[in-house]
Design goal:
heterodimer, A: mainly beta, 7-stranded mixed β-sheet, globular, B: mainly beta, 11 strands
Amino acid sequence: GAGVSQSPSNKVTEKGKDVELRCDPISGHTALYWYRQSLGQGLEFLIYFQGNSAPDKSGLPSDRFSAERTGGSVSTLTIQRTQQEDSAVYLCASSSGGGRNTIYFGEGSWLTVV
Amino acid sequence: AQSVTQLGSHVSVSEGALVLLRCNYSSSVPPYLFWYVQYPNQGLQLLLKYTTGATLVKGINGFEAEFKKSETSFHLTKPSAHMSDAAEYFCAVRVGGSQGNLIFGKGTKLSVKP
């Protein structure tokens, strides 16, 4: 597709379950980002990939959160043993090389933990 | 460390009035600055960006912003508000020359009254 694609768009899960969120970046984009957006917290940076490696994981809130990227393309954000405070919109974004270049966002995956 | 402050979590204007959304940044190195807009239940869309060169930047939908280094500001303006401008606006900073992540402000929700 032409834009950043995320799935699922909505996910309701029970507390304690694991969830996987998927991101398909724009074709050819080497950089990929995950952000979390929740009420009162704004947009929090989670992790950044350059190719398949993650030079910056500083935003991951706990060891229950992990992410990987394979083939320099698709990325998966995994949340283990979900908690209610994990409820948020998880936004993926991608960019081609260069700091001047625009970071393009997907429409997000809305996660609700009940 | 870089940071962004957006003054006013909620701004309300009348249709046809001037829109002014304030953004101040903190950066120890020359920054790249961005404004994004988010419509309800959608991802973020780039309005405009400043990297180098002309300090007055024009974006989509009639918006513009001026980079003022002496004031560490990058305020967003539009001469005449439309109802369709109602959305949430985010200012962001990125380390100049870096492909790293964006640091976002908390956002300003713009309401437009008929």
